[in-house]
Amino acid sequence: MLTSLSLRNFVIVEALNLDVRQGFTVLTGETGAGKSILIDALSLVLGGRADTTVIKEGAEKTDISAEFQYTPAVRAWLAEQELDTEDDTLMIRRTVDVKGRSRAWLNGLAVSVSQLKAVGELLVDVHGQHAHQSLLKPEAQLALLDDHAQTGEALAAVAVAYEAWREAGRALEDATANAEVVEAKAERLRWLIDDLSTLSPKAGEWETLNAEHTRLAHGVSIAQGLHDGVELLTEGEENASSMIASVQTKLMDLSRFDERLGAMAETLNTALELVEETGHDIARYLDRNDFDEEHFEKLDQRVSLYFEMARKFRVDPEELHALWLRSQEELDELTATKDIKALERALQKALAVYDEAAATLTQARQAGAKALSEAVTREMQTLAMKGARFEVGLVRNAPSPRGSEHCEFLVAGHTGVQVRPLSKVASGGELARISLAIAVITARATPVPTLIFDEVDSGIGGAVAEVVGNLLRTLGQARQVLCVTHLPQVAACGNHHWKVEKTMADGKTVSHLNVLTPEKRTWEIARMLTGIEITQNALDVADEMLAR
User: Fold this and answer.
1) Would you give the distance in Å from CA 450 to the centre of its chain?
2) 332-341, pLDDT tens digit by residue?
């Protein structure tokens, strides 16, 4: 439930702090005074489209805050969004500056506009003053039925099944229409795969193969160089090892006369050990080096084949394995695509899934149509339409993402006549009353705690207006109801009464809202009855209406 609303620099409202109470609250005032501004402000703070035109002239930004009591649904949504807090109330704030930048918060935590919209749908339900006009549009009628019948899950399943069916149809169409192109591409891929199969390149093989080929290609040079190295280091007549050993021995002998020469001898001893160790390592390498000319020849042929294929298909040798796999995958896809029989079976299966989902949706709509027809018909009897009948008809149509039927609102103005399309038989007043009946019924079905009716009673007058007022007052016993109205009969039924007035201040138009006392309510009802000149008779009638 909405508990407070605060506006700063919104349209022609400079500042407004409003406490909102439970029950049925009416908003009245002269035409153009700004009654709908409050509805617009509430819509904005709950995720409506931001527009710089809502900023009061001369101000840098507009700032709107609304406070709500929690409901279980809101608590669950906040927990799901990881926005839950320990606060006792939910505070929503939104600002829009002159540069068009919009910011929003829930209990001080920054949120997106989409999150505002989501939580707003759980808090407030607005029935606009032009709602009755949308009743004439088939798409709006179907949306209203689906909402009343709560077909959300079934409708989503139909949309998914429809897209899968369409995709299967496109696949079959493409395969049939491009058969020659597909076959030519498949033939090219087979040729490429057959050629690469003679090589059968493996992942990572080229790098290993190339390194081994390079080593074996220079095997003779490597062996000769290493043999010369061993001779020079340890095995030749004049090798480095013996010469270092000779010098080291002389230094050790001479160290008897100069201790510093002993350190040099030790250094040469370390060098001698390194030289001899390296010589032994080279000798062991030569012993194990089994150059196989036949193995090298096979290796050389494979390297040559890699280079040949790489030139043929204009890729680097290391890319041949990926090209081979990719070509096989593409051929598999083309082969599957070309299987017309399989595609036809897939199409039939997708259609069967759609038909099943659409049938489930149809059943839900039929049940919802019956319930809505009966409920609206009952409500019409209280709105000066005795004997009138309302029906929701379902008409089969081609499969679509919204199912296999559309709906049509039908009405009979009195007993004994056939129902006909609403757009052809309902007058403006009847249309407004039917719209109001539907709004009240759908409002009763929704768990949203706050209901707003923005001049939905247009086109109604006299005794019917009083019935409407009582209807909204009854609705206000279970919900918080706010209604913008021009009808004194409706205004008199309110538990609370606000009056919006427009004045001039410093050469600028500003709007004010006053919470009316019982005495001022009498004067406002009298004004609504008679206009500018308020007579005693009008005041007496207003008192009587309020008392009744």
Assistant:
1) 26
2) 877 765 677 8
Is residue 146 within 8 A of residue 362, CB to CB? The reply is no
Residue 451 is inside which H or E element, if any? strand 450-454
CB 38 within 8 A of CB 5: yes
| Two tokens, residue 32 | 């153009």
Eight-state DSSP code of residue 29: -
- Note whether 438 and 144 are within 8 A (CB): yes
Note whether 361 and 354 are within 8 A (CB).
Answer: no
Rounded to whole angstroms, the Cα distance separating 222 from 224 reads 6
pLDDT at 49: 87
pLDDT in tens, 476-508: 888 899 998 889 999 999 999 999 888 877 777
CA atoms within 13 A on the CB side of 443: 27
- What phi and psi, each to the nearest 5 degrees, are found at residue 358? -65, -35
Polymer length in residues for the chain = 548
Region of 531 (left: φ > 0; alpha: ψ -120 to 50; beta: rest) is left
Q: Quick one: three-class SS letters along 292-334?
A: CHHHHHHHHHHHHHHHHHHHHHCCCHHHHHHHHHHHHHHHHHH
pLDDT of residue 360: 96
What 3-state DSSP class applies to 133? helix
Strands, E, within 455-537: which ranges?
A: 480-484, 496-505, 508-515
Sequence-separated contacts (24+) of 224-227 with Cβ below 8 Å: 226/282, 226/285, 226/286, 227/286
Please list the ranges in the chain whose pLDDT falls under 50.
none
**By the 8 A CB rule, do 529 and 542 touch?**
yes
The per-residue DSSP string of 42-107 comes to HHHHTTPPP-GGGBPTT-SEEEEEEEEE--HHHHHHHHHTT---S-SEEEEEEEEETT--EEEEET
pLDDT at residue number 396: 93
- Alpha carbon 196 to chain centroid, angstroms: 46
pLDDT on residue 442 = 73
**pLDDT at residue 8, rounded to an integer:** 92
Task: Round to whole Å and give the CA distance between 487 and 474.
Answer: 17
pLDDT of residue 161: 96
Question: C-alpha dihedral over 368, 374, 375, 377, to 10 degrees?
Answer: 140
SS3 378: helix
Q: Which residues of 137-176 are buried (b: 16+ CB within 10 A; e: fewer)?
A: eeeebbebbbebbebeebbebbbebbebbeebeebbeebe
